[in-house]
Fold this protein.
Amino acid sequence: MTTIAFIGLGNMGNPMAANLVKAGHSVQGFDLMPDNLATARDNGVTVMANAGAAVRDAEVVITMLPAGKHVVSVYEDIVPQLGDGTLLIDSSTIDIESARKAHGIAARRGLLSVDAPVSGGTGGAVAGTLTFMAGGSAEAFAKAEPVLKPMAGRIVHCGDAGTGQAAKICNNMILGISMIGVAEAFVLAEKIGLTHQALFDVASTSSGQCWSLTTYCPVPGPVPTSPANRDYKPGFAAALMLKDLKLAQEAAQSSGVATPLGAQAAQLYALFSGLGHAGDDFSGIIRMLRGDVA
Ligand code: NAD
Protein backbone atom coordinates (compact mmCIF):
# COMPACT_ATOMS: atom_id res chain seq x y z
CA MET A 1 0.00 0.00 0.00
CA THR A 2 1.26 3.45 -0.95
CA THR A 3 0.07 6.77 0.46
CA ILE A 4 -0.91 8.84 -2.58
CA ALA A 5 -2.00 12.49 -2.64
CA PHE A 6 -4.41 13.19 -5.51
CA ILE A 7 -4.98 16.85 -6.39
CA GLY A 8 -7.66 17.68 -8.96
CA LEU A 9 -10.67 15.38 -8.56
CA GLY A 10 -12.72 16.37 -11.61
CA ASN A 11 -14.20 14.28 -14.42
CA MET A 12 -10.93 12.40 -14.86
CA GLY A 13 -9.28 12.70 -11.44
CA ASN A 14 -12.15 11.25 -9.44
CA PRO A 15 -12.46 7.92 -11.28
CA MET A 16 -8.65 7.63 -11.45
CA ALA A 17 -8.38 8.15 -7.69
CA ALA A 18 -11.19 5.61 -7.18
CA ASN A 19 -9.16 2.97 -9.06
CA LEU A 20 -6.14 3.65 -6.82
CA VAL A 21 -8.36 3.12 -3.76
CA LYS A 22 -9.68 -0.13 -5.28
CA ALA A 23 -6.06 -1.26 -5.78
CA GLY A 24 -5.53 -0.94 -2.02
CA HIS A 25 -3.70 2.40 -1.84
CA SER A 26 -4.42 5.05 0.76
CA VAL A 27 -5.51 8.13 -1.24
CA GLN A 28 -5.61 11.63 0.26
CA GLY A 29 -7.48 13.96 -2.08
CA PHE A 30 -8.04 17.65 -2.60
CA ASP A 31 -10.08 19.70 -5.08
CA LEU A 32 -11.45 23.24 -5.04
CA MET A 33 -15.02 22.07 -5.72
CA PRO A 34 -17.07 20.70 -2.80
CA ASP A 35 -19.18 18.46 -5.06
CA ASN A 36 -16.07 16.77 -6.40
CA LEU A 37 -14.80 16.24 -2.86
CA ALA A 38 -18.12 14.62 -1.92
CA THR A 39 -17.81 12.18 -4.86
CA ALA A 40 -14.23 11.42 -3.84
CA ARG A 41 -15.33 10.68 -0.27
CA ASP A 42 -18.00 8.29 -1.59
CA ASN A 43 -15.24 6.54 -3.57
CA GLY A 44 -13.12 5.93 -0.47
CA VAL A 45 -10.70 8.85 -0.84
CA THR A 46 -9.69 10.60 2.40
CA VAL A 47 -10.72 14.17 1.66
CA MET A 48 -8.41 16.94 2.89
CA ALA A 49 -9.00 20.66 3.50
CA ASN A 50 -6.19 21.88 1.24
CA ALA A 51 -3.35 20.70 -0.99
CA GLY A 52 -0.81 21.00 1.83
CA ALA A 53 -2.82 18.64 4.03
CA ALA A 54 -3.32 16.20 1.13
CA VAL A 55 0.43 15.81 0.53
CA ARG A 56 1.33 15.27 4.20
CA ASP A 57 3.17 11.91 4.50
CA ALA A 58 2.45 11.18 0.82
CA GLU A 59 4.95 8.95 -1.01
CA VAL A 60 3.47 9.90 -4.38
CA VAL A 61 1.63 13.07 -5.50
CA ILE A 62 -0.61 12.92 -8.58
CA THR A 63 -2.08 16.07 -10.13
CA MET A 64 -4.96 16.11 -12.65
CA LEU A 65 -5.63 19.80 -13.26
CA PRO A 66 -7.06 21.95 -16.09
CA ALA A 67 -3.96 23.75 -17.42
CA GLY A 68 -0.25 24.53 -17.02
CA LYS A 69 -0.75 27.54 -14.76
CA HIS A 70 -2.67 25.39 -12.25
CA VAL A 71 0.02 22.71 -12.21
CA VAL A 72 2.89 25.19 -11.76
CA SER A 73 1.05 27.03 -8.98
CA VAL A 74 0.17 23.80 -7.13
CA TYR A 75 3.79 22.57 -7.48
CA GLU A 76 5.11 25.89 -6.10
CA ASP A 77 2.73 25.46 -3.17
CA ILE A 78 3.30 21.80 -2.29
CA VAL A 79 6.84 20.87 -3.33
CA PRO A 80 8.51 22.68 -0.39
CA GLN A 81 6.28 20.63 1.93
CA LEU A 82 7.11 17.20 0.51
CA GLY A 83 9.27 14.63 2.24
CA ASP A 84 12.52 13.37 0.69
CA GLY A 85 11.89 10.64 -1.89
CA THR A 86 8.36 11.75 -2.79
CA LEU A 87 7.53 11.09 -6.45
CA LEU A 88 5.50 13.64 -8.44
CA ILE A 89 3.27 12.58 -11.35
CA ASP A 90 1.36 15.16 -13.36
CA SER A 91 -1.33 13.60 -15.56
CA SER A 92 -2.94 16.86 -16.70
CA THR A 93 -2.69 17.84 -20.38
CA ILE A 94 -0.57 21.01 -20.32
CA ASP A 95 1.88 22.99 -22.44
CA ILE A 96 5.40 21.63 -22.67
CA GLU A 97 6.94 24.78 -21.17
CA SER A 98 4.83 24.50 -18.00
CA ALA A 99 5.55 20.77 -17.83
CA ARG A 100 9.29 21.46 -17.90
CA LYS A 101 8.82 24.23 -15.30
CA ALA A 102 7.05 21.75 -13.02
CA HIS A 103 9.87 19.20 -13.48
CA GLY A 104 12.33 21.99 -12.61
CA ILE A 105 10.51 22.84 -9.37
CA ALA A 106 10.68 19.16 -8.34
CA ALA A 107 14.32 18.77 -9.41
CA ARG A 108 15.46 21.82 -7.43
CA ARG A 109 14.04 20.10 -4.34
CA GLY A 110 15.83 16.85 -5.33
CA LEU A 111 12.61 15.00 -6.17
CA LEU A 112 11.80 12.69 -9.09
CA SER A 113 8.94 13.71 -11.37
CA VAL A 114 7.07 12.43 -14.41
CA ASP A 115 4.72 14.16 -16.84
CA ALA A 116 2.17 11.45 -17.65
CA PRO A 117 -0.83 12.78 -19.58
CA VAL A 118 -3.49 10.31 -20.62
CA SER A 119 -5.65 9.34 -23.51
CA GLY A 120 -8.86 7.33 -23.19
CA GLY A 121 -11.26 9.91 -21.75
CA THR A 122 -13.63 9.54 -18.83
CA GLY A 123 -14.62 6.04 -20.00
CA GLY A 124 -11.00 4.92 -19.80
CA ALA A 125 -10.59 6.65 -16.44
CA VAL A 126 -13.57 4.73 -14.99
CA ALA A 127 -12.52 1.42 -16.54
CA GLY A 128 -8.87 1.82 -15.53
CA THR A 129 -7.75 1.45 -19.15
CA LEU A 130 -6.12 4.82 -19.82
CA THR A 131 -3.02 5.10 -22.00
CA PHE A 132 -0.32 6.99 -20.08
CA MET A 133 2.46 8.74 -22.03
CA ALA A 134 5.28 9.39 -19.60
CA GLY A 135 8.19 11.81 -19.75
CA GLY A 136 11.01 11.77 -17.20
CA SER A 137 14.20 9.95 -16.24
CA ALA A 138 14.37 6.14 -16.34
CA GLU A 139 14.54 6.15 -12.52
CA ALA A 140 11.42 8.33 -12.20
CA PHE A 141 9.54 6.20 -14.75
CA ALA A 142 10.45 2.96 -12.96
CA LYS A 143 8.96 4.36 -9.75
CA ALA A 144 5.87 5.76 -11.48
CA GLU A 145 4.92 2.70 -13.53
CA PRO A 146 3.54 0.51 -10.69
CA VAL A 147 1.58 3.49 -9.32
CA LEU A 148 -0.04 4.14 -12.71
CA LYS A 149 -0.91 0.46 -13.36
CA PRO A 150 -4.33 0.33 -11.63
CA MET A 151 -5.45 3.26 -13.82
CA ALA A 152 -3.86 2.07 -17.06
CA GLY A 153 -4.38 -0.12 -20.09
CA ARG A 154 -1.01 0.92 -21.47
CA ILE A 155 1.96 2.90 -20.16
CA VAL A 156 4.59 4.20 -22.59
CA HIS A 157 7.88 5.81 -21.54
CA CYS A 158 8.33 8.48 -24.23
CA GLY A 159 11.66 9.94 -23.11
CA ASP A 160 12.89 12.75 -20.91
CA ALA A 161 10.95 15.48 -19.10
CA GLY A 162 8.14 16.93 -21.23
CA THR A 163 7.99 14.14 -23.81
CA GLY A 164 4.75 12.74 -22.36
CA GLN A 165 3.07 16.06 -23.14
CA ALA A 166 4.76 16.13 -26.55
CA ALA A 167 3.29 12.69 -27.38
CA LYS A 168 -0.14 13.75 -26.17
CA ILE A 169 -0.37 16.87 -28.34
CA CYS A 170 1.03 15.10 -31.43
CA ASN A 171 -1.50 12.26 -31.00
CA ASN A 172 -4.40 14.64 -30.54
CA MET A 173 -3.35 16.74 -33.51
CA ILE A 174 -3.66 13.57 -35.62
CA LEU A 175 -7.07 12.91 -34.04
CA GLY A 176 -8.40 16.46 -34.60
CA ILE A 177 -7.31 16.43 -38.26
CA SER A 178 -8.52 12.87 -38.95
CA MET A 179 -11.97 13.54 -37.47
CA ILE A 180 -12.44 16.50 -39.81
CA GLY A 181 -11.27 14.36 -42.75
CA VAL A 182 -13.71 11.56 -41.92
CA ALA A 183 -16.56 14.04 -41.34
CA GLU A 184 -15.90 15.76 -44.69
CA ALA A 185 -16.01 12.40 -46.47
CA PHE A 186 -19.40 11.55 -44.93
CA VAL A 187 -20.81 14.99 -45.87
CA LEU A 188 -19.58 14.56 -49.43
CA ALA A 189 -20.98 10.99 -49.56
CA GLU A 190 -24.42 12.28 -48.52
CA LYS A 191 -24.45 14.68 -51.48
CA ILE A 192 -23.25 12.21 -54.10
CA GLY A 193 -25.61 9.35 -53.37
CA LEU A 194 -23.55 7.11 -51.08
CA THR A 195 -25.09 5.81 -47.82
CA HIS A 196 -23.28 6.18 -44.51
CA GLN A 197 -23.14 2.40 -44.13
CA ALA A 198 -21.70 1.87 -47.62
CA LEU A 199 -18.94 4.42 -47.05
CA PHE A 200 -18.21 2.90 -43.64
CA ASP A 201 -18.11 -0.67 -45.00
CA VAL A 202 -15.61 0.32 -47.68
CA ALA A 203 -13.42 2.84 -45.84
CA SER A 204 -13.22 0.85 -42.59
CA THR A 205 -11.48 -1.97 -44.44
CA SER A 206 -9.61 0.22 -46.94
CA SER A 207 -6.93 2.87 -46.86
CA GLY A 208 -9.29 5.42 -45.27
CA GLN A 209 -9.40 3.33 -42.08
CA CYS A 210 -8.63 5.24 -38.87
CA TRP A 211 -9.83 5.53 -35.24
CA SER A 212 -12.07 8.51 -36.04
CA LEU A 213 -13.94 6.25 -38.47
CA THR A 214 -13.97 2.81 -36.88
CA THR A 215 -14.28 3.70 -33.17
CA TYR A 216 -15.73 7.18 -33.16
CA CYS A 217 -17.71 7.35 -36.40
CA PRO A 218 -19.22 10.88 -36.65
CA VAL A 219 -22.55 9.71 -38.14
CA PRO A 220 -25.11 7.56 -36.28
CA GLY A 221 -25.45 3.90 -37.23
CA PRO A 222 -22.22 2.21 -38.30
CA VAL A 223 -20.57 2.28 -34.83
CA PRO A 224 -23.42 2.10 -32.27
CA THR A 225 -21.23 3.25 -29.34
CA SER A 226 -20.01 6.46 -31.01
CA PRO A 227 -21.29 9.84 -29.64
CA ALA A 228 -23.14 10.50 -32.94
CA ASN A 229 -25.71 7.96 -31.70
CA ARG A 230 -26.48 10.05 -28.60
CA ASP A 231 -26.80 13.47 -30.18
CA TYR A 232 -23.05 14.15 -29.80
CA LYS A 233 -23.09 14.08 -26.00
CA PRO A 234 -19.39 13.77 -24.99
CA GLY A 235 -17.25 11.70 -24.92
CA PHE A 236 -14.49 14.13 -25.60
CA ALA A 237 -15.79 17.69 -25.70
CA ALA A 238 -14.92 20.05 -28.56
CA ALA A 239 -13.50 22.50 -25.97
CA LEU A 240 -10.92 19.89 -24.89
CA MET A 241 -10.01 19.11 -28.49
CA LEU A 242 -9.55 22.84 -29.09
CA LYS A 243 -7.34 23.08 -26.00
CA ASP A 244 -5.09 20.26 -27.26
CA LEU A 245 -4.92 21.68 -30.80
CA LYS A 246 -3.92 25.07 -29.39
CA LEU A 247 -1.17 23.39 -27.33
CA ALA A 248 0.05 21.69 -30.54
CA GLN A 249 0.06 25.05 -32.35
CA GLU A 250 1.99 26.69 -29.49
CA ALA A 251 4.59 23.93 -29.71
CA ALA A 252 4.73 24.15 -33.52
CA GLN A 253 5.22 27.92 -33.46
CA SER A 254 7.83 27.91 -30.72
CA SER A 255 9.83 25.24 -32.56
CA GLY A 256 9.39 26.77 -36.04
CA VAL A 257 7.51 23.80 -37.52
CA ALA A 258 4.78 24.23 -40.14
CA THR A 259 1.64 22.22 -39.35
CA PRO A 260 -0.89 23.65 -41.82
CA LEU A 261 -3.59 21.04 -41.24
CA GLY A 262 -3.12 21.27 -37.47
CA ALA A 263 -3.56 25.04 -37.72
CA GLN A 264 -6.67 24.64 -39.87
CA ALA A 265 -8.14 22.06 -37.47
CA ALA A 266 -7.56 24.45 -34.53
CA GLN A 267 -9.41 27.20 -36.43
CA LEU A 268 -12.35 24.94 -37.27
CA TYR A 269 -12.69 23.76 -33.65
CA ALA A 270 -12.48 27.37 -32.44
CA LEU A 271 -15.33 28.25 -34.81
CA PHE A 272 -17.42 25.24 -33.74
CA SER A 273 -16.86 26.04 -30.04
CA GLY A 274 -17.61 29.73 -30.65
CA LEU A 275 -20.95 28.80 -32.23
CA GLY A 276 -22.04 27.42 -28.85
CA HIS A 277 -20.89 23.81 -29.26
CA ALA A 278 -17.87 23.76 -26.93
CA GLY A 279 -19.66 21.19 -24.78
CA ASP A 280 -20.63 18.88 -27.67
CA ASP A 281 -18.52 15.88 -28.53
CA PHE A 282 -15.74 16.88 -30.94
CA SER A 283 -17.15 14.54 -33.62
CA GLY A 284 -20.18 16.88 -33.73
CA ILE A 285 -18.06 19.14 -35.94
CA ILE A 286 -19.66 17.21 -38.82
CA ARG A 287 -22.80 19.28 -38.22
CA MET A 288 -20.89 22.49 -38.86
CA LEU A 289 -19.20 21.04 -41.94
CA ARG A 290 -22.63 19.99 -43.25
CA GLY A 291 -24.00 23.48 -42.57
CA ASP A 292 -26.42 22.24 -39.88
CA VAL A 293 -25.20 24.70 -37.25
CA ALA A 294 -24.71 28.37 -37.84
P1 NAD B 1 -12.15 18.91 -14.77
O1 NAD B 1 -12.33 20.37 -14.97
O2 NAD B 1 -13.35 18.04 -14.62
O3 NAD B 1 -11.23 18.68 -13.46
C1 NAD B 1 -10.18 19.52 -13.05
C2 NAD B 1 -10.34 19.71 -11.54
O4 NAD B 1 -9.22 20.46 -11.05
C3 NAD B 1 -11.60 20.50 -11.17
O5 NAD B 1 -12.40 19.68 -10.33
C4 NAD B 1 -11.04 21.73 -10.44
O6 NAD B 1 -11.86 22.13 -9.34
C5 NAD B 1 -9.70 21.22 -9.97
N1 NAD B 1 -8.74 22.26 -9.63
C6 NAD B 1 -8.39 23.35 -10.36
N2 NAD B 1 -7.43 24.06 -9.71
C7 NAD B 1 -7.18 23.40 -8.55
C8 NAD B 1 -6.29 23.61 -7.46
N3 NAD B 1 -5.48 24.67 -7.42
N4 NAD B 1 -6.29 22.72 -6.44
C9 NAD B 1 -7.13 21.65 -6.46
N5 NAD B 1 -7.98 21.38 -7.48
C10 NAD B 1 -8.01 22.25 -8.50
O7 NAD B 1 -11.22 18.40 -15.95
P2 NAD B 1 -10.96 16.88 -16.41
O8 NAD B 1 -11.85 16.56 -17.54
O9 NAD B 1 -10.90 15.99 -15.22
O10 NAD B 1 -9.50 17.04 -17.05
C11 NAD B 1 -8.34 17.13 -16.25
C12 NAD B 1 -7.13 17.15 -17.15
O11 NAD B 1 -7.12 15.95 -17.93
C13 NAD B 1 -7.12 18.31 -18.15
O12 NAD B 1 -5.79 18.77 -18.27
C14 NAD B 1 -7.63 17.69 -19.44
O13 NAD B 1 -7.16 18.35 -20.59
C15 NAD B 1 -7.07 16.29 -19.31
N6 NAD B 1 -7.81 15.25 -20.04
C16 NAD B 1 -9.18 15.21 -20.00
C17 NAD B 1 -9.85 14.22 -20.71
C18 NAD B 1 -11.35 14.14 -20.69
O14 NAD B 1 -11.92 13.40 -21.51
N7 NAD B 1 -12.05 14.81 -19.78
C19 NAD B 1 -9.13 13.27 -21.45
C20 NAD B 1 -7.74 13.31 -21.44
C21 NAD B 1 -7.09 14.32 -20.73
